[in-house]
Structures are given as structure tokens and as C-alpha cells.
Amino acid sequence: MESKVSGFLHEALSGEAQKAIFLPWIAQSFEPSLPLLTEINRAHVVMLHDTGLLTSDTASRLLAVVDELADTGPPAFTLDGSFEDVYFNYEAQVIRRLGQDVGGRLHTARSRNDLQSTLDRMRARNLALSLIAGNLSLRRSLLDRASQYTDCVMPGYTHLQHAQPITFGFYLAGVEKGMQRDFDRLLGAFHRLNQCPLGAGAMAGTTFPIDRQFVSALLGFSAPVAHALDAVASKDPLLELLCAALFVATTFGRLAQDFYLMSTFEFSTLTLPDSLAITSSIMPQKKNQAVLEFLKGRQSHILGALVTGFASFRAAPYSHVLDSNADSLHWLWQAADELVDTIPVVDQVINRATPNRERMAELAGANFSTATDLADFLVREKGMSFKEAHHITGRVVRLAIDTGLGVADIPPELVARAALETTGRMLSLTSEEIADALDPRAAVERRRSGGGPSSHDMESLIEQSMLKLAADREEHKRIGSSIERAGHRLRTRAAELRRPVTASSSARPHFV
């Protein structure tokens, strides 16, 4: 059987290759590609017409069929692996409806290389905007909840050991700061994605007098990709988006891990609703935090897609080849789509997690998490070096543990003994001084150095974060509106050129 797509190849693509490689690839990507291919074809036809490369009649007939196929959707196509890819399957339908003379002109002055690169960037651009929207939603939820719990004292941990008292609001505001950087990475990836390869041709441009700037603007891109070879050779902007997505999944995965521990019986500092848990098939009492487990695991999907992408580019030539330009994206779309769908679940977790104030306060006052404050007191009020105060306080904690005393039970005599054993000098503190130094709520409020958990610092932190959130929302709105306006201009211009296909318009078109 002869090739359906080439006058040079003597044989059609083998059935085995079609079944194993090409048909699965086409089937997987056809439906999400069709709306984007519709936009690209409209823009290309409009540009060809406005630069004098298509007659009005030909442009009208092509646009009419592009619209028909868009309206019918995937049912308009019977996918055929021997047509090699999405575009040749699409073009076959156009030619079937309009004939070779008219339908065959759709691909004037372009290659599948620049076409597919443009389609991939548009698809990734949409994902970037969805991830940015999700990021903004999560940050708003975190800041709202942080404002609600600025007075909810809890232990802060380092190495999963009690460190210093903080508040639940302070913790949530910290996670939001990480998500601010996630936004910046997503936005940077978007701007590098938002350049149009169309017009680069196979890899060296075209001999036709096209207008790359015009078609780029019609598709909502900020500019054409400057270098034709680079336009078709590079998928690094898509992999950069995937890297940014990995940070997104990692940030909320770390929050999920913290909530996972906090919701255990042993911690009992956080409760999540039953609607975000599952049960056991054998143990009737079980409330398993499976949603949190899946949230923790989502970054592995992104990482797997990223490894596939970079491995496909290893030692790849700097040009268009399918191992790097197609196979590299095999898992990207699924992993990124999953991430977009997961973000509303993260939002539910943030908004429906309920801290146990009493348990948090109990743990904040236990296990000597305010020891640093006692050392700081000795430096401020007794003129000691911090090193000396650190040693004395460490000895106080050891003696208290050895004698079975809790934080609230430490008497002046024990502090005096610790100082004598450590420095050889007596130290006299009152019970009130010790109690105030070791009080977790007072310890939180003393931290007013900037960026701390005190109500003074938290007010400033939340205000700053709200201002950045507002600015980031405006930027997201601006770039989304710019793409929407471009789409409106494209649809309007295409409608001006289009008219219904009739028998009387079947005259052979020509270039003008």
C-alpha cells in the first residue's frame, strides 16, 4: 500500500508502527489539540489572506471548513495511524471536504514542525494560566486562615523536635510565602512560553512573504520566537513550566505532610473533616487521611514527567526530532492536568482543617520550647554572653528533666544550681522572672524583630502578602485578558472573511 501522505515514500507506515507508536500518540493528543489547532488554522488563514497569499474566496472556504470541524469536534474525524499525526488527520478531512486545490492550501508557508511547536506552547500556556489561578486561590485561603489564627499558639518544630513557640497563623503565612515564589516561577515560565514559533517553517523559515508578528498577535503571543531553528528545536520552556509545577506540588505536599502528622492521635493538634478521609475495610475505627497521602504523592507524578522530558533531550540534536519534540512530552500533559485538578482539593484541606487550640497550647508549653527565651533573658537582664547563657539554660533543662519537673515547675533554686555547676557563680532569679521567660504566649509576643509570630509582626507580614497577592492577581488578569482580546480579534477577522461554502465558489483558487 502506498503512503497516504507522501509522493516520495513507496510504502505506507507499517501496521505495527501505527499500532504501537503513532495511533496511541494521535488518539491521546487529538481531542485536546483540536481547539488549539482550530485557532492556529484561523490565524494562519487570516494572515495568508492579509499578506496576499490567499484569495478571499479560498480564505473564506477554508475558514468555513475550519469552523465546521470545530463545531462537530472529534466525531468529525476517523483517526488513521497511517496519516502519522494529528495534523495530517485533520488536513485529510479538510481536503476531503474542499478538494486538493483548496484544502491543500491550508498548509502554505508552514511546516508541521512550527505548527506543533505553536500548539504545544498554547496548550502549555493554558496550563500555566490555570496553575497560576490555582496558586492565587490557595494563597488567599492561606492568608485568610492565617489572619484567623494569629493568636493560636503552637509549638514550632525543627528536626521534628520542639523548637520555639509560634502560632498556627504564622505557620500558614509561612507556607503562603513559599507559594509566592511558586507564582513567580510559574509567571516566568509563562512569559518564556508565550512566544510564537509559527512562521519558522521546518527549521529555516519560509520563502513566502508572511507576517510572523501579525499571526503571533492574533494568537495572543507576546512576540514570535526570534530564531527559526530555535523555534522548532526547543521544548525547554515547557520543561521549565513542569519544573515550576514541581515546586507547586512540593510546596503543598509539605503542608500535607505537616497536616498528616498533626492529625494523628499522638499529635492531636489538627482535625480534618470526614469528607477528606477514608475508612478501613477491616478496622471499623479507622479514619485514614488518604487525601493527604495522595497530595503528598502528587509531586512524584510531576517528577516522573520531568525525568522523561529531560531524558528525551539527552544528546538530542539541536533541531526537530520526535524523541525530544514529541516523546519528551508524553507524561507532561497528564501530570500537569492532574495537578490543576488537585489544587481545589488542597484548597479544601486548607479551609476545612481545624486546629485544636487547647492541645496546641498544651504542647507549646511542654518540652521546654521556651528555653531560648530564658537564655535571652539572662543576656538582656544579667549581662551574660549568649554562649554562657545557653550553657546555663541547657543545664536547667537537664536538671528539670532528671528531677521530673515540668516547664511550669522550675524553681529559682534549680536555676541557681545550674549556674553554679556551669560557671561556678551564683545566679538569682525570681519565680516571676522564670515564669515569664518560659511562658509560650509571652515568648511569641516578644518576637517583634520582623518576620516573627508576634501579633505586631504578623500584621505586617499579612499586609505585605495581601498586597503582593493583589498585584499578582492583576498580572494574571492582565495576561489572561490580553489572550482573550486576541482571540476576540481573531474570531472577528475570521468571521469577516468567511462565508458559507457553495457550489458556485468551487472555481480554482490562485495566489495573488
Walk me through what this model shows.
It is a single chain. The protein is mainly alpha-helical and 512 residues long. It has helices spanning 15-50, 56-72, 86-98, 100-103, 112-148, 168-193, 212-218, 228-233, 236-262, 290-313, 322-325, 332-352, 357-364, 371-382, 386-402, 412-423, 431-437, 440-446, 455-497, and strands spanning 153-158, 161-167, 195-196, 223-224, 270-271, 354-355. Strand 3, helix 7 (212-218) and strand 4 form a beta-alpha-beta unit. The chain is elongated. The model is unreliable at 501-512 (pLDDT under 50).
What would the keywords be for this entry?
512 residues, Ribonucleotide Reductase Protein R1, domain 1, Fumarase C, Chain A, domain 2, mainly alpha, two-stranded parallel ribbon, Fumarase C, Chain B, domain 1, two-stranded antiparallel sheet, 64% helix, 3 domains
Largest sheet: 2 strands, antiparallel
- The ordered H/E elements are HHHHHEEHEHEHHEHHHEHHHHHHH
Count the beta strands: 6
* Beta content: under 5%
Q: How many individual helices?
A: 19
CATH domain topology of the largest domain: Fumarase C, Chain A, domain 2
Shape: elongated
Determine and state the CATH class of the largest domain: Mainly Alpha
Total separate domains: 3
How would you classify the helix and strand content by structural class?
mainly alpha
What strand line-up does the widest sheet have? 1-2
Mean residue pLDDT? 94
Helix-residue proportion: 55-70%
**Poorly predicted parts:** 501-512
Protein name: Argininosuccinate lyase
GO molecular function, one term: argininosuccinate lyase activity
Catalytic activity: 2-(N(omega)-L-arginino)succinate = fumarate + L-arginine
Pathway: Amino-acid biosynthesis; L-arginine biosynthesis; L-arginine from L-ornithine and carbamoyl phosphate: step 3/3
